[in-house]
Design brief:
Blueprint: E1 3-9, E2 12-17, E3 21-24, E4 30-34, E5 40-42, E6 48-54, E7 57-58, E8 61-62, H1 63-75, H2 87-105, E9 120-126, E10 135-141, E11 145-150, E12 161-167, H3 170-177, H4 181-199, H5 216-223, H6 238-258, E13 270-275, E14 278-283, H7 286-301
Antiparallel strand pairs: 1-2, 1-12, 2-13, 3-4, 5-6, 6-9, 7-8, 9-10, 10-11, 13-14
Length: 302
């Protein structure tokens, strides 16, 4: 699994991702764990970055290698249309490229059949040509949807901030909202199941406690908004937004490290800040930085 984080303030966009990836069989058994995966990368000479969560590879190809192939092919064109695409146009082209390879490795189910293929999420953030405010899109497979998570702010925008995260959300849900509803509802659902089995006479659930009279979702409906962290993102400078994204990433990694079961979030945290004029890495794995320098030299020679 993964943690992907996006934080936007008026001065720019910050994206962060961990470096751990698990390779599993179709039955869910973990075959290998890698702790140096590059899940966040910039795109050529654009103020656009891509990060991934969910499925770690398609056949023998890492998701990053597919993104790199797409970038390589588009920049090889003369002239290269990728230089002028809006963020939305970039997302549409990237989705078409990845989905073709995804469907080739995992053929779609038959008509009217449920689609149980592996989930893959790609988050794209950055600036369209001539735009001062960023946009964030989420691309999801197998459904092939491209959803805008952050719209470009208007010229008269008085307040501007945005926080979202993808992957293993439990720790950040608890930190930012005071609770993780998905975890609570999972436990509530089990208690309801146990009660039903006990009522059927199943002795394995004879001592199971009753579920609460009200589901956690209903109980938190009124007070939930009161638990949201009192952040100060509105008016926050970009450097502090970078530090905030870094903090969120380290919370997610630390929480996963010290909870039961094999870790699914971890390794080094990569953190990237983007503005209309350019981008800068706050944290990046050393080897990934060296490879980025090599790509820059290649692009310069073209």
């Amino acid at each position: 699994m993964t943690i992907n984080i996006a934080v936007a303030v008026a001065e720019g966009l910050v994206m962060a991702a961990d470096s751990m990836s698990q390779m599993s069989t179709d039955q869910g058994a973990v075959m290998a764990t890698h702790s140096s995966v590059e899940k966040l990368t910039e795109i050529g000479d654009r103020q656009i970055a891509v990060m991934t969560h969910g499925l770690g590879a398609i056949a023998s190809r890492t998701i990053l290698s597919l993104v790199r192939e797409f970038e390589f092919a588009e920049y090889a064109k003369d002239p290269a249309p990728i230089r002028t695409w809006s963020v939305q146009e970039f997302c549409a082209e990237l989705m078409a490229f990845v989905k073709q390879r995804y469907d080739g490795a995992f053929p779609p189910p038959g008509q009217n059949a449920d689609d149980h293929r592996h989930s893959l999420g790609i988050v794209v953030g950055g600036y369209s040509p001539g735009a001062f405010f960023p946009e964030v899109f989420e691309l999801t497979l197998p459904d092939g949807k491209v959803v805008q998570r952050l719209e470009m702010a208007g010229a008269n925008q008085q307040g501007f901030w945005f926080v979202d995260f993808w992957g293993v959300r439990t720790a950040l849900n608890r930190l930012l909202f005071g609770y993780d509803l998905s975890s609570l509802m999972s436990k509530y659902g089990f208690l309801c199941f146990a009660r039903d089995e006990r009522n059927k006479g199943n002795p394995n659930f004879a001592g199971a406690p009753d579920p609460p009279a009200v589901s956690p979702q209903d109980a938190l409906f009124e007070i939930g908004p009161m638990e949201t962290i009192d952040h100060r993102l509105n008016g926050m400078p970009l450097q502090e937004a970078v530090e905030f994204a870094d903090y969120l990433g380290m919370v997610a990694i630390g929480y996963d490290r010290f909870t039961e079961g094999p870790p699914s979030v971890g390794g080094e945290l990569d953190v990237l800040a983007i503005q209309p004029e350019g981008l800068s890495w706050y944290k990046r794995k050393p080897f990934a930085s060296k490879m980025a320098e090599a790509r820059d030299r290649r692009n310069t020679r073209r």
